Amino acid sequence: MRLVCLLLVAAGCGGNASGGGDAGNCGADGVCTPGCTDDPDCTAVCGDNACTDNELCSNCAPDCATRDLACGNGACEGGEDSTTCFADCGPSPWTWAPDEQQLLDMVNAIRTAGLQCPGAPTVTIAPPLALQASFVPSAHEWAWEVAHQNFVSPTGGACNGRTFDDRAAAGGYVSFVLSRDHATVEAAVTAWKTSAVLCPIMMNPQRTEAATAIAMDAAKSYLIVMN
């Protein structure tokens, strides 16, 4: 059923196609005309089993909270890119690369200088994290899901049902620190430093590789993934 609906939408008809009463009429007359890309009668309806138009996993779970290939499910995959599925893949080139470098530099400065996390008995000193380029696509996808769909799970899961283990297996990392809606990179790092939960993860001396990801849209997301 999903495949049929997707094919109908791709043909320009997301409703009940008819070659009769609506022939050649792309206006609002209650019938969707195939080939009429601006026909208001072809607008997708949440619950029609097709994740289309402006539907997202976060605003139309019945259609878009799927691990099948669908633009709007939060997963940039299956040949999707910024042009074909901006909702899942975000902008290209990536808008926030300088901020991401700032975030990595600030975290590394804290790690090498040493920090006593809240509740920790001693100061922890850790080696700097080397940027691992292979982590970046997965980290960007995750940060964009938080920012664009305004969806975040404290366990690292995704709106469409993927778990953190799924993300980690695809991205190659084993831990993460994530928060949202800070005004600046500095504010995000301060929040991580003062969190009894996030600080020990950020300061883990066993971690040697990382990628940072920042995205800003409906929400602001700040993420670092590590291995």
Topology of helices and strands:
Blueprint lengths: L1 H9 L50 H4 L21 H4 L7 H17 L16 E2 L4 H14 L14 H8 L3 E6 L4 H9 L4 H5 L6 E8 L3 E7 L1
Parallel strand pairs: 1-3
Antiparallel strand pairs: 2-4, 3-4
Share in β-strands: 5-15%
The level of helicity is 25-40%
CATH topology of the domain at 97-226: Pathogenesis-related Protein p14a
Helix run count = 8
By CATH, the architecture of the domain at 97-226 is named 3-Layer(aba) Sandwich
Q: How many E strands?
A: 4
What is the global morphology? elongated
| Elements, N to C (H/E) | HHHHEHHEHHEE
Report the oligomer.
single chain
Major β-sheet, in short? 4 strands, mixed
The radius of gyration over CA amounts to 21 Å
User: In CATH, what is the homologous superfamily of the domain at 97-226?
Assistant: CAP
Low-confidence stretches: 1-23
Helix vs. strand class: alpha+beta
CATH class of the domain at 97-226: Alpha Beta
First-to-last CA distance: 41 Å
Could you report the average pLDDT, rounded to the nearest whole number? Answer: 87
Order the strands across the largest sheet as they lie in space: 1-3-4-2
